[in-house]
């Protein structure tokens, strides 16, 4: 599995079969790369191979952004941090989980959340990762020409999506999946199911043409219209 071009200067890197887990690379005008999410603990091999396939070196990655502290997003972060030497950033409400390698508690009001809560050792989800800086909703990060933070809590307290205006790409994280169709995150993995759906509605208010999803293939044209139709309960 190699890097898949999403837009000029943006690539999706599948790290599991059938596009089920993806990370993203966003390139700046100076050639530096920002990695969004690091997949599971097994993902760094795929991520490093994808970099090599693009003719890039690990040191070209100058920053690692984490959408949230789940093991399929942050599980490979410590290894990628070591391989690239890049600093790691996440939302201020997510940093404690990333630093402790701990996943937030699932919503006990749902059957899925209660079942997830019974899995032994689930909270201790991944290798702890030093967090070099945190961000807040609305911050425009000085990476790749500007990446805007969109706080979409509910999946986890500090879950964030990222908008890259210069390429017209939205990276949803787990606010919305694209597994066979657009859908909300699985309830068992959310800390607050109601809030996760309310905050996902923010993604329909943004301006973008392409949407990249951690789970599922990207939508290369008309993504905003497709997301808005999904949020309104209409077939896209």
Reconstruct the topology from this structure.
Elements: E1 4-7, E2 10-14, E3 22-27, E4 33-36, H1 44-53, E5 61-65, H2 71-74, H3 77-84, E6 88-91, H4 95-100, H5 111-117, E7 133-135, E8 140-141, E9 147-151, E10 160-164, E11 169-171, E12 177-179, E13 181-183, H6 193-200, E14 210-212, H7 223-231
Parallel strand pairs: 4-5, 5-6, 6-7, 11-14
Antiparallel strand pairs: 1-2, 2-3, 3-4, 8-9, 9-10, 10-11, 12-13
Q: Could you characterize what this model shows?
A:
The radius of gyration is 16 Å and the shape is globular. The chain has helices spanning 44-53, 71-74, 77-84, 95-100, 111-117, 193-200, 223-231, and strands spanning 4-7, 10-14, 22-27, 33-36, 61-65, 88-91, 133-135, 140-141, 147-151, 160-164, 169-171, 177-179, 181-183, 210-212. With 236 residues, it is of the alpha/beta class. The protein is built from 7 helices and 14 strands. A 7-stranded mixed beta sheet has the order 1-2-3-4-5-6-7, covered by helices on one side.
Structure keywords:
236 residues; alpha/beta; five-stranded mixed beta sheet; 7 helices; 23% strand; globular
Q: Based on the structure given, which CATH architecture is correct? A: 4-Layer Sandwich
> What is the highest CATH level, the class?
Alpha Beta
How would you classify the helix and strand content by structural class?
Answer: alpha/beta
**Biggest sheet overview:** 7 strands, mixed
Radius of gyration over all CA atoms, rounded: 16 Å
What are the low-pLDDT stretches, counting only 5+ consecutive residues below 50? none
CATH level 4 superfamily: Ribonuclease Z/Hydroxyacylglutathione hydrolase-like
């Amino acid at each position: 599995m190699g890097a898949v071009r999403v837009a000029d200067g943006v690539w999706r890197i599948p790290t599991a079969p059938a596009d089920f887990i993806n990370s993203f690379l966003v390139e700046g005008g100076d050639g530096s790369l920002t990695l969004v999410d690091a997949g599971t603990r097994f993902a760094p091999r795929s991520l490093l191979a994808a970099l090599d396939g693009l003719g890039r070196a690990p040191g070209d990655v100058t920053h690692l952004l984490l959408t949230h502290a789940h093991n399929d997003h942050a599980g490979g972060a410590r290894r990628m941090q070591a391989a690239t030497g890049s600093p790691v950033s996440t939302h201020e409400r997510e940093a404690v989980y990333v630093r402790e390698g701990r996943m937030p508690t699932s919503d006990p009001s749902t059957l899925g959340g209660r079942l997830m809560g019974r899995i032994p050792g689930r909270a201790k989800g991944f290798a702890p990762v030093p967090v070099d800086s945190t961000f807040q909703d609305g911050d425009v990060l000085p990476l790749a020409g500007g990446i805007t933070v969109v706080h979409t809590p509910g999946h986890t307290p500090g879950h964030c999506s990222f908008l890259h205006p210069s390429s017209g790409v939205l990276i949803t994280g787990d606010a919305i999946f694209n597994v066979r169709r657009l859908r909300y995150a699985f309830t068992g993995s959310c800390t607050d199911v109601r809030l996760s759906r309310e905050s996902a509605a923010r993604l329909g208010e943004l301006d973008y043409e392409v949407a990249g999803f951690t789970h599922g293939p990207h939508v290369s044209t008309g993504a905003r219209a497709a997301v808005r139709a999904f949020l309104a309960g209409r077939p896209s």
